[in-house]
Amino acid sequence: MHIPNLWNGQKSNILILGGTGFIGTRLAEHFCDSGHKVYSLARNQRKTSYDDSSYFNIEGNINNCRLLEPLVDKCPVIIHAASDSVPGDTIKAPLCETYNNLLPTIALIETLQLFENRHIIFISSGGAIYGNPEKNPASESAQCNPISYHGACKLSLESFLFSFAHQTKNRVTILRPSNVYGPGQMTPKGFGLIQTILNAIFNDSEFTIWGDGSIIKDYLHVRDFVIACEKILCSANQEKYARYNVGYGKGYSINAICQMAEEITGKKLRKVYKEARIIDPEEIILNTDKIRSETGWCPDIDIKEGMGQVWKSLEPK
């Protein structure tokens, strides 16, 4: 089996599922700029400056097999960046996670079974899938004990995709990113800590901290994550099924992030502390030795530089 890789100047058609979301948009922009044709499937349209020969925006759901089949037929690379929740959305709501994320992706897998020699990249979660690991930083071999239904769903889909890779002539790569942030991130309730904090400072509004602010997480700039995706696609590795952590490899508490935000902006954050949530790990930092050694990837943007970029994007032009 040979699945085309994007190296030595080779161009490809790339299908991005969830291509109008925060990560999906950045992936689409990067691969269009690199000369590839990008097909973006999402539930909403977005305006773009790309011409019609390099970017195609299709409105629809990932469980629509009639819509998907002609797209997958054109695209040897499929990046699954579609997600309808964050851990806080589905507390005590497993059916919501099942109907919105698990079942649509299983329907997608049924469609993908009709094809061969496809490379599917699934964006899982390095922040939710491990739960509270015995050791930090956590490597890909660490036991996965998700404590949120969101993390449990991601782990379930990884298992389905393992079976899919085993049963078909297709390749699957699982990427487990840490908390991805950067300019332009949308901030629905419970999503995007750094953007939410800086928005609260910008708007002089209250910011809610669940617990005492001691929770430690790993934060990765979206640009570094996009480059990691490209490195995976350019790798000569033809392993049928592979998993990679993608994080900065360093942890910061919520209190430390708040303090950095105040230093960067020169303004005070109005913090409100509330009872801790049961779905938040106490500490999760990702060991990224595997992706570094196999692809040469290394994160380039440290957290202070990245937060400065986000703050600058909020300032009036």
Briefly say what this structure is:
With 317 residues, this protein is of the alpha/beta class. It contains nine helices and 13 strands. Helix content is 36%, strand content 20%.
How would you portray this structure in words?
This protein has 317 residues and is of the alpha/beta class. The chain has a domain at 13-180 and 220-247: NAD(P)-binding Rossmann-like Domain (Rossmann fold, 3-Layer(aba) Sandwich), CATH 3.40.50. The chain has helices spanning 22-33, 65-74, 94-112, 149-167, 193-203, 222-234, 254-265, 289-295, 303-314; strands at residues 13-17, 37-42, 55-59, 77-80, 119-123, 171-177, 179-181, 206-210, 216-221, 241-246, 251-253, 270-274, 283-284. The chain has a seven-stranded parallel beta sheet with strand order 3-2-1-4-5-6-10, with helices on both faces. Strands 7, 9, 11 and 13 form a four-stranded mixed beta sheet that branches. The protein has a two-stranded parallel sheet with strand order 8-12.
